[in-house]
Amino acid sequence: MAYDGVETPHGKVDRMLGGAATYIGLAASYFTSVKIVAVVGDDFADADAELLASKGIDLEGLERVPGQTFFWQGKYSADMNDRETLRTDLNVFAGFQPKLPESYRSAPYLMLGNIQPALQRAVRGQMNGVCLAGGDTMNYWIRDYRAELLETLRGWDFLLINDSEVRMLSAEQNLRRAAAKVMDMGPRTLVVKRGEYGAILFCRDCHFIAPGYLLEDVFDPTGAGDCFAGGFIGYLARQRAGAGIEDLRRAVIYGSVMGSFCCEKFGVDRFRTLTMDEVEDRYREFKACTDF
Amino acid sequence: MAYDGVETPHGKVDRMLGGAATYIGLAASYFTSVKIVAVVGDDFADADAELLASKGIDLEGLERVPGQTFFWQGKYSADMNDRETLRTDLNVFAGFQPKLPESYRSAPYLMLGNIQPALQRAVRGQMNGVCLAGGDTMNYWIRDYRAELLETLRGWDFLLINDSEVRMLSAEQNLRRAAAKVMDMGPRTLVVKRGEYGAILFCRDCHFIAPGYLLEDVFDPTGAGDCFAGGFIGYLARQRAGAGIEDLRRAVIYGSVMGSFCCEKFGVDRFRTLTMDEVEDRYREFKACTDF
Question: CA-CA distance, A30 to A258, in Å (whole number)?
Fold first, then answer.
């Protein structure tokens, strides 16, 4: 969990609630009960904890320690397909050793946000029994922590990363072959995020291509990829009987839907008012715009 | 019609049949009868004319004049999303004034390849009575021949261009608003091509988003956009009763299918062996990979 400073062509916010756990949790909370593990400093605002709690998110695993919360500042390009990081202060995140409360350990789904692969693996190891586990990673871990990441990936059922990361991880330019190589590393389900162009779901012997939802206005893309992940895993978690391929396809669309809402306002603001009826309306609109 | 020299990461061909009319005509010929208007020099090979004729393409409007055929040479980047033009020799194309044979003038559909907007308008003016007309253009005409292009667009029913061209033509970054502005210029149907990411069909009060077909191997993207256009207009022409919105959606998918085949071999080579059964198989595969 983090505070972010963000500038886009539509405006500038110096400090607002952010972080992968925040976005994933908020998006997933529309579909299932969510328990967050994260660390914040003593500057963390009650109002921000209250927003999460108001969505029914369990904060027992939210550690509060002396110091400042992780801070990230960035500026988006005119077309918002690129961003420049202006500042990253790890603060209390630097010493973070995630510990799962006892009540979290039997959850059936585990979604690991983008942090050091060894920490992700340690969290996975704290889970009792069988759960469907997976997560996100990024270019930094792929390049500089490769062995550690590969060991972590062996224990994952699913992986959600973007197209350039799939190519980097596999050292293969063609996306279909790149996906096959990555699935050989462990995850039997791979979701390749392509930003405004949608996502591709790869399973062992099939794939599903979803275009991106076409937004009238993109105010701030921060967190959209995490909201995609939250919608994806949240929808899967709602399918109690175990998810089949049809559920996985719908999970990708719900992921796109949650990512699209995220972009409509700065930071998490859209989730303050977003209703499940709006989510279902957009899902139906998505279907109407892509059916042939 | 042209000869092209092309280099991609998969190989290099010094001289092969190319040009918008060639690709559009070949792709459309799988759906409808095609009549080509174009100019070539006295270097134009009989074998190339025979390939077109073998697909039932009418070449009465193919003008042969003394001199060399238009020549283009380019080199693609490693990921094939970019290309550099190494050479453009207009040759006999420089003085081209397209003239429709009498037998062409009552055709119900007219697809204008990317040439000077005034020439496109002159061809449109040679058609008798009502036909569904439209075509392609490019950044050069948008930037340097804007008034001429706008006059041409007023007479078009449909326009097929890529996303950066839509943004340039409308001076609007957001694609939905950009599309609305372009449709105000004349064409009531706009197809925005997005390369490997698919295409979006815009009509007055709805849109349809199609992802790109995921190819195992892209050998040479040259002509893929023109094959998209050929598949699109060819499929529409096959619907004798006048195309509705459902037909337009399917036309976009057939466009993507024809564009995807084009990339599988160098130049027009894939069309030497491509069968309608393969086209229909890929259409069904497209549906299976995108349905939810």
Answer: 9
Rg of chain A over all Cα atoms, to the nearest angstrom: 18
B175 touches chain A (CB under 8 A): yes
Which one of B168, B209, B250 makes the best mutation probe of the A interface by having the most chain A beta carbons within 10 Å?
B209
pLDDT, tens only, B199-223: 999 998 899 999 999 998 899 999 9
A41-45, A104-108, B76-80: which range is least confident on average?
B76-80
Are the C-beta atoms of residues A260 and A213 closer than 8 Å to each other?
Answer: yes
| Cα–chain center distance at B135 | 8
What one-letter code names the amino acid at A129?
Answer: G
Q: What is the mean pLDDT of residues A61-77?
A: 97
Indicate the SS3 state at residue B70: coil
ipTM above 0.85, yes or no: yes
CB atoms within 10 A of CB B143: 11
pLDDT digits (tens, 9 = 90+) for B224-280: 999 999 999 999 999 976 778 999 999 999 999 999 999 999 999 999 999 999 999
With an 8 Å Cβ cutoff, are B287 and A287 in contact? no
The identity of residue A182, as a single letter, is V
Helix (H, G, I), strand (E, B) or coil at B156: coil
Counting Cα atoms < 13 Å in the Cβ hemisphere of A221 gives: 18
Q: Which residues contact A249 (CB under 8 A, 6 or more apart)?
A: A201, A208, A210, B291, B292
Name residues 73-102 of chain B within 8 A of A (Cβ). Answer: 78-79
Q: Are A124 and A134 in contact (CB under 8 A)?
A: no
Are the Cβ atoms of B252 and A78 closer than 8 angstroms?
no
The pLDDT score that the predictor gives to residue A240 is 72
- Cβ pair B217:A175 closer than 8 A: no
User: What is the number of alpha carbons within 13 Å of residue B86 lying toward its C-beta?
Assistant: 10
Q: Do B173 and A79 touch (CB under 8 A)?
A: yes
Can you read off the two tokens belonging to residue A13?
Answer: 């916010």
Give bridge partners of residue B133 from the DSSP assignment.
Answer: B110
